[in-house]
Design a protein that fits this description.
The chain has 17 helices and two strands. It has helices spanning 3-19, 48-72, 74-111, 113-143, 147-173, 181-209, 214-253, 257-281, 287-350, 356-370, 379-383, 398-405, 407-413, 418-444, 449-457, 461-495, 497-523, and strands spanning 21-22, 28-29. The radius of gyration is 43 Å and the shape is elongated.
């Protein structure tokens, strides 16, 4: 071997040492060694890398096996049961507490925000109708130099406009909460519409003081503005507020089936856990699980009784308050609208304007209020619902009676409260007096204008209508108060439930965990 060959061999060995390993075929490997086994490290030990890789591959499967073995073992199963029962108790308590809190928040909204908006919408509608009557009546009173009546109706007009502005301010302040963009836009235009109406009334009043014939034109323009814009808007807002209250009442009257089902499943799980542990430990009673079951049963009963009691109060609020109040309010607004058309008939007759449209509207509203007969026809049948031919309160034909006799009959059919029934009877009797006087107004309008105005503004017609308005207004206030009282009582029923259910769920989870933990400690 030459010196040159020896140097070449040394260089090759150095290359192998630097670059890696070479297998039997001459390939270089990563370990820095060569051997007949395929991989040989520098020390001459074979198979180290392969064994290391195999060991790492086996570690996850070994860990999974150990976990499975743990879950199959008694301590593992008891530990899993402990965790499951604690989580179940906490989740059920959280869901139930949130549900009760949501119902309580809805009831609070009914007693405050939604309830107040509903009243504001009704008052806006009512006060506009009152202002319409008062403006026309004050106009006629100045015409006939009836100073006392003029002052009375001008004062009534100013009061009604102030009430309308106050109610509208309440509605506008809450318009951002309205989900309907159309109603939000409508509320934005109403202050301007109301201002336009008052300007027309003041213009008519100014011309009337000077005795100008054009005064009646402006008064009728004001009435047209009221009917074209303000009253339809008030009606829409009133109906929307009613629907909102009704939806909230229905949501709080619904039975909490989901919550009760979850509590029932929790109780079943606790009972099942006791049976399973008894078979595994031969211990008859587990104090912790028995206590947890008792608290879960208490939670079930409390939720059932509380929700049922609150729902009953809300139902009474709806049936004896909201529904009766809506019927009475509708009857009152119908009467006010009829009275306004009666006054406008004389305003239009003053300067030979068309009176037919006001009389036609009056006839339509009269039928809506009292139906096809006399208003007092509702008195006798309602006193004896089971009498032959009678179809009063509780009759299966109550809807037909309402259609035949109008809003007063519907209002009376909606309530079984004797005090409210008496107020409606008084209203019906006064309505007949007022409608009888209207015949005189109609027959003398334009022909004997002074006599027609005297009949409209004087006794007994004016007094009779005041009785109609006062009795219906008083009845509306009574049922509103009743509805609010029932809602407040329902809310009070749920006051202690939210924290109570939360505490019971925590105690249930703790007791269940403690019961299983005790067995786990004994096993160890």
């Amino acid at each position: 071997m030459t010196e040159h060959d020896t140097d070449a061999d040394s260089d090759a060995a150095g290359a192998v040492a630097i670059s890696g390993s070479v297998d039997a075929s001459g390939a270089v490997g990563p370990s820095g060694s060569v051997g007949p086994s395929g991989l040989v490290d520098a020390s001459g030990e074979t198979g180290t890398v392969i064994d290391d890789v195999a060991e790492r591959a086996e570690r996850p499967s070994a860990l999974g096996m150990r976990r499975k073995d743990l879950l199959r073992s008694t301590p593992g199963q008891w530990g899993a049961l402990l965790v499951a029962l604690v989580i179940a108790g906490l989740v059920v308590g959280l869901v139930t507490s949130l549900s009760v809190h949501s119902r309580q928040a809805t009831l609070s909204d009914l007693a405050t925000s939604s309830g107040q908006l509903r009243v504001a919408a009704a008052e806006f509608h009512r006060s506009l109708s009152t202002a319409d009557i008062a403006a026309a009546a004050a106009f006629l009173a100045r015409d006939q130099d009836r100073a006392t009546d003029r002052v009375r109706y001008e004062t009534s007009y100013e009061t009604a406009i102030g009430e309308a502005q106050s109610a509208l301010a309440t509605l506008v302040a809450a318009r951002d909460e309205d989900a309907d963009p159309g109603r939000r836009n409508l509320l934005g235009t109403l202050p301007g519409r109301l201002s336009e109406y008052t300007v027309l009334v003041e213009t008519a009043r100014s011309y009337n003081r000077e005795g100008e014939p054009i005064a009646s034109t402006y008064q009728l323009l004001a009435a047209d503005a009221m009917r074209a814009h303000l009253l339809p808007a008030a009606r829409e807002l009133h109906q929307a507020a009613r629907a909102q209250v009704t939806d909230r009442q229905l949501s709080t009257m619904s039975f909490p089936l989901l919550e009760l089902a979850l509590i029932g499943l929790l109780i079943a799980a606790l009972v099942g856990a006791q049976v399973w542990l008894r078979r595994r430990t031969n211990r008859l009673i587990n104090v912790g699980l028995v206590a947890a079951t008792a608290m879960a049963v208490t939670m079930l009963l409390w939720t059932t009784v509380g929700a049922n009691a609150a729902g009953s109060h809300v139902e009474r609020s709806s049936e004896d308050g909201t529904q009766v109040g809506d019927a009475l309010t509708d009857a009152r607004i119908t009467a006010l609208a009829a009275r306004a058309n009666e006054a406008l008939l004389l305003v239009s007759a003053r300067d030979d304007h068309d009176t037919d449209r006001y009389q036609e509207r009056f006839v339509e509203l009269r039928k809506r209020l009292v139906g096809s007969g006399n208003a007092s026809d509702i008195i006798a049948p309602s006193r004896s619902p089971s009498s032959p031919g009678g179809s009063g309160i509780g009759s299966a034909d109550a809807g037909d009676v309402g259609h035949a006799r109008g809003g007063l009959a519907l209002a009376k059919a909606a309530t079984d409260d004797p005090a409210i029934q008496d107020q409606i009877d008084t209203t019906a009797a006064a309505t007949d007096v007022w409608l009888h006087e209207h015949r005189t107004v109609l027959s003398t309008a334009g022909v004997a204008q002074a006599g027609a105005v005297e009949t409209l503004l004087g006794s007994p017609g004016s007094d009779a209508f005041d009785t109609v308005d006062d009795e219906l207004g008083s009845a509306v206030d009574d049922v509103r108060h009743r509805a609010t009282t029932e809602i407040t009582t329902a809310r009070s029923t749920l006051t202690a439930m939210t924290p109570g259910v939360a505490i019971l769920s925590l105690l249930t989870a703790f007791a269940a965990g403690a019961g299983v933990w005790q067995r786990l400690r004994e096993y160890r």
